[in-house]
Fold these 3 entries.
Entry 1:
Amino acid sequence: MAEITASAVKALREKTGAGMIDCKNALVEANGDEAAAVEILRKKGIATADKKAGRVTAEGAVGSYIHMGGKVGVLVEINCESDFVARGDEFQQLVKDVAMHIAAADPRFTNRADVPAEEVAKEREILMEQLKNDPKNASKPADVLDKIIDGRLNKFYEENVLVDQPFVKDPAKTVGELVTEKIASIKENISIRRFSRFKMGEGIDKKADDFASEVASMVG
């Protein structure tokens, strides 16, 4: 049996839009043959996201979720191709699930493309300084350090980018993989366009309570 490498799984995922586990299983079944693995995924209805990615998503829904007794609220817009699908139970459940995920996971960006280039550059700079300050990395060449940084940047994306975050209801897959599954199931292109997350009191400078003064005023 051919060895299934992480890079092969990643390449198949990028080509088909299928989940990591589905890609690995397809490669195992295809004995490492990428073309055969693509066909396996297509036959299973999984590798449809790549074919639909360019199709216009002008319909959809704006969903909301309120959590913690009104302390946290979310609005999210998810688009699809037809009003018929937008009104369907499966799509509506997706909107609800993603809104709930945003409330719980607090992402900062929708996609990696939304992360400002200067923030990525700053993150790389910080990571490089951390590596250089570790004596274990003194003899490692620059290209090796770059690969380590790329791996740690993926962690940054997993924490901050919605589609890269592990889905709160099923951490074995990301939110992006959840959307890919729905594209295969619903047979339409689907995209998360934007979201807003609100937390009561966020950004307000709250006055620190002077406990001693408060007690004094109560007894005086």
Entry 2:
Amino acid sequence: MRTHRRPRKYMKALLRTTLLLCVMSALLFSPAAFAQDSGASSPNAEAAPADTRGIDIDVTLGVKRKLIPMAIPKALEPGGDTGKIAQTVHDTLARDMKLAGFFKVLDEGNFFFDTSQEGMGASAIGFSNWFNVGAQGLIKSSVRTNGDQVVLDLRLYLVEEGKPARLDWKGGSFSKDEYIKQVHAFANEVLKYYTGKPGIFGSRIAYVRQQKRNKQIYAMRLGEEGVAKITNNNSINMLPSFGPGGAIYYTSYQAGNPDLWVYEGGKSRKLSSVRGQNTGADYCNGKLALTLSKDGSNSDIYLIDPSSGKIAQRLTDHWAIDTSPSWSPDCSKIAFTSGRSGGPQIYVMNADGSNQRRLTYQGSYNTQPSWSPSGNLIAFSARDERGAFDIFTVNLEGSIERLTQDQGNNSDPAFSPDGRYLVFISDRGGKGKRVWMMTADGEVQNAITEGSGYQSPAWE
């Protein structure tokens, strides 16, 4: 059911000095430290308590969708014990289906029959049993090893019809480094069968993780356990984003100044090192937008050459701070955060800096825009009337929808490549800041990392 909030009277705008400090902190740190006074000049400073001032935001909440019941029994092992491989295949399938947000993975404890006695073919499956446990879909898997190869057979069955679904995926023999990618490929095809669009399992997500007084950049593949460490220095690294060919842009203090670096081909190199901020880079079709505060001036948005780092164009020139550029999918427009209205709000401009207009008018503190690949929505983080940060979306007409509520602080939204999901940071449940994933309507939300200390996720 949709809920609707009535706006209260707006609070007075923050003083200019306070605005500069707040937005600077918003750029460099998590929302919990938005009111921090030290900002870019002191990256190791302890975070101050969040400013609890705010107002009601007039939004709507999403509508519940019905999930498709999916049964995923243990993998068959026709060639004998495969060690952990069969269990890994099963767990990967179950995890992918859960994260997809369209399926309810049924509890195996409710399977009242011996699933290991079934085969892979339709004639060897007791569909009436699966119907009685409530399954609409059934994923069967068979795993055996042949030397250093994994022989994999995966099938989706339609329980009520008692027949297999036709998917654009073929089983076969794969290396031990490749077979998990094939499991993700199958899961993507299952999602395509039910929704018309393939999934994004196996895609890369970069993020920041706190390590004592350092912050390092990591990258992971959705649905997999392993991570790759992108930076390994005794410094603060932050705000990763992806570029062409798997490149990762990020800001690092390793040389003392918040410089922009790029990681590609297994190596990092400094790309932009003007004095002051070089932060929040976002790439689109040969153009790299970022925030610079040259020679101690206010933060503004520029375009630089993605190869040389040379400044190509200044897009904003305002007394207020302009930060966090996010390209539209066709590279014709840029969303950004600006304090020119008295408090940080989401703005949109053309790619050449013209036609700068305010997009959000509800709420006094709106930051961190992320433009959807579909082009019609911009996700952002806002401080609500309780002083908590939550995730919202706004369309190009300014209509706002709320995606998170009453679950701690939620910030740093970033869209998936297909626009159907968002990753974000949440401290809900008292488990610290973790990376979470949700459907773009906010209906299904799951943690995708363990531990705490995460910031600034970005999706390739």
Entry 3:
Amino acid sequence: MKTKLLLLITLLSVTLYGQDVEKTTFSLNEAVAYGMENAYEIDYANKDVEIAEQRVRETTAIGLPQVNGAVDYQNYLKQPVSLLPAAAFDPYNQIRDLDDYYQVTPVPGNPVPGAPEGFIPINFGTKQNISASVILNQLIFDGSYLIGLKGVKVYLKQGENAKSKTEFIVKQTITNAYTYVLLVEENLSILEKNKTVLESNLNQTLKLVENGFSEEQDAQQLQLTLSAIINEINSTNRVKASAYKLLNLGLGLDINTPITLTETLESLLVSNLNLGLTSQDFDITNHIDYQIANTNKESSELLMRFEKSKYLPSLNGFVNVGTAANNDQFQFFNNDQKWFASSVLGVNLSVPIFSSFSRDAKTQQAKIDLLKAETQLTETEQRLTVELQDARNDYQFAVESYNISKDNMALAESIESKENTKFFEGVSTSFDLSNAQNQLYSRQREYLESILYLINSRVTLENALNIK
């Protein structure tokens, strides 16, 4: 029983652990999909959309009832003094300060004196008072608020458009980085093969030199070529480490996370060779760049309407309900403390009359901004048309370049193989062999570069066609 229980716990732990393990094996499509969920740029774009959604809520709330409460407490450490005419309160003319007022005695022999001059200092109210109130404000009409509601919806749309644009960029970044890693891996594989061939040739040549059938210079020439290949392998290994880190960064993974790529350059080539893309239909109004420019135009239109709405009056209503208590001591919560309620209902109408032409200046600025946005929309249409044509041409050229570089590499391999045979048959020199080898290495690099160019141009064409 204990054994079964232990086995169950172990299996459960493994299952739960497996659910938390971070994905580290990717095909290209899986890498793009993973990046769409976890890339840093996507995270930023999602947060911008969330901010825009909260901005919509914030603006909408301006037109809804606003309720605020307030509590005020005052304790006069020294009460303020008010001055009243002495003639009304001091027929005996004996008050000189506030204390004298409370100790008035008749003057013997002068019961009815004349009216005194000056003022009497008096305290009004109590030393302490407290009040509480609740205020409800309601916007009844404001033209700028109505325009603002439409404006924040456009603002949200801009955030969503920016997110879509970011998705295109992330896809291109991950595809390029993924392809580059495969390219580096393939380059290393080719270099290692070249190294193996050179080491074999060098060993055979050294034996020929020992037996007097070849010159030492032939071995030295091969050694130079081998040293160059070894140096290139070391350099490419450093590039490989950096390439993996860049891919991890694009995916949103820790840069030091080991990952495995399941694609090969050959499989990517098969999926990227599609000349049908060069003739695919294109609706410019669906392109994300056009939508961004069009949304900016909508924003400028609303801005102009917003400035014009400032010429309209605004109307607000309010209700204020409160209560207050007064006492010389802090006894406000005693049962015998009296509280006095108050309430008021009102409206406030604000009518713009004259702003020294500042409103007109802002309206003119908005009109100019709208004209600018319309021009930018036209420019975007023209630019997207040109970019699409360039992308189609580049992709077609990339396919042609790939086919040519592939054939050239095959020819260079054949030449190098024949030259290698001639060298060991003694009918060719080490310089001829070295030239053939260097020519092969150049054609190999061109072949790899043509693959990278082909895949990158494919992604660029898809972006130009607005294909996700």
